[in-house]
Amino acid sequence: MKPSKRLENLGNYYFAVKREEIRKLEAEGGEKFISLAIGNPDLSPPDEVIDELKRALNDPNAHAYQSYGGLPELKETIADFYLKKFGTKIDPEKNILPLMGSKSGILYLHLAFLNPGDKVLIPEPGYMAYKGAAYLVGAIPQTFELDEYNHWQPDWNTVESQLDEKTKILWLNYVNMPTGVIATENDLKKAVAFVRQNRMILAFDNPYSLITTQPASVLKYAEDVPVVEFQSFSKNFNMAGWRIGWVAGHEDIISQIAKVQNNVESGMFYAIQKAAVKALQLSDEWMNHLNEIYSKRRKKAKEFAKKFGGTCEENTGGMFCWVKLPEGMNAQDFTDELFYKHRIFISPGTIFGEKWNQYVRISLTVSEAQYDEAIQRLQTWKK
Q1: Is the pTM of this model over 0.90?
Q2: Which in 151, 183, 220, 307 has the greatest CB count within 10 A?
Q3: Alpha-carbon distance 206 to 173, whole Å?
Q4: Distance between CA atoms of 311 and 358, rounded to whole angstroms?
Q5: Are 124 and 143 in contact (CB under 8 A)?
């Protein structure tokens, strides 16, 4: 049986391959690996959220099929969240669609608006799922470069030069992954003005929206413009395995994504939706505490990077450090050396785009003690 042509450009997911390799190597013996590569939150969700999940399990309606479009209470709470956090008023029925994780919504958007041969603009370095979703629907991913000299923001003249009548969607992601760079109000206004002028969809991926000192939403500047924003409970509330998020924005785009969704899914688990409501109702104390933890870990990650001469991008958010290597160092060779010689797993920049071979990404999702152990293992490392 031959697989479909749409799979020809899809390789195996990098982190899945490496995790399987770690499993085999550890089974053979030796030191445990220190994994500083994957953005998998190691901390628990808030206690109140777990308690609400348990309570909701006993609700008489908990185990039945749920509404395709999500609980009205969840959508209303998301709308309240936008008003409280970002000063943005949106209609819970027309402008919000809960998702089984924002990653599924990325594919649904592409299915809803891209035909084979259409083009989608994708930032590089950037999240691999954007390109994968484009390939799955037979669209053509076109990358545009972000670089340190423009503080990892798009050069809009360069982006505009890539447009033609087949270009339908532009992806942006801030707080950015992998660089951690934060978009300013001016950056967001420029992005909205660009898609308004060029009559295309802006898909704004915002899963780290609260893991920053400057929470921001593009929807604040996007009234009557074809813009949608994806958010997730995975990072902000340590609920990665729960698979719940949402997309919010332009009514016409939301309705078409919903049409795809209700042909694929049969509604999200009631108890998870109720717990998500509780998460969005938490006081600022939760996020302040979480950001404090990540701030301490970021300092440790910088200390680790300093051992091999790397420098972390400054004034960032999210749960990663984007590290520039010293001149002459090769990210792929260096990460292989760490992996096989020191049993430390970090991400080479090349998995986010072939050009980024002078960068590595370090995750902030391990304890401070794990960074100390990684630093200790590098005591004998020589450039």
Answers
A1: yes
A2: 183
A3: 6
A4: 11
A5: yes
Our CA dihedral for 190, 191, 195, 201, rounded to 10 degrees, sits at -160
Q: In whole angstroms, give the CA distance from residue 54 to residue 56.
A: 6
182, 104 Cβ separation under 8 angstroms:
no
Decide if 267 contacts 66 (C-beta within 8 A): yes
CB 273 within 8 A of CB 279: no
Asked, as a colleague might, if the bond just before 125 is cis with ω within 30 of 0, I would say yes
| Residues with Cβ within 8 Å of residue 216, at least 6 apart in sequence | 86, 174, 182, 183, 185, 188, 209
Q: Which residues pair with 249 in a beta bridge?
A: 228
How many residues in the chain? 383
Beta pairing, strands 320-324 & 359-363:
antiparallel
Q: Which residues of 279-302 are buried (b: 16+ CB within 10 A; e: fewer)?
A: bbeeeeebbeebeeebeebbebbb
Query: Helix, strand or coil for residue 311?
Result: strand
**Rounded to whole angstroms, how far apart are CA atoms 178 and 312?**
11
Query: Would you write out the chain's pLDDT as a tens digit for each of its 383 residues?
Result: 888 888 888 877 888 899 999 999 999 999 999 999 999 999 999 999 999 999 999 999 999 999 989 999 999 999 999 999 999 999 999 999 999 999 999 999 999 999 999 999 999 999 999 999 999 999 999 999 999 999 999 999 999 999 999 999 999 999 999 999 999 999 999 999 999 999 999 999 999 999 998 999 999 999 899 999 999 999 999 999 999 999 999 999 999 999 999 999 999 999 999 999 999 999 999 999 999 999 999 999 999 999 999 999 999 999 999 999 999 999 999 999 999 999 999 999 999 988 999 999 999 999 999 999 999 999 876 55
Closest-CA residue to 350 (of 126, 172, 153): 126
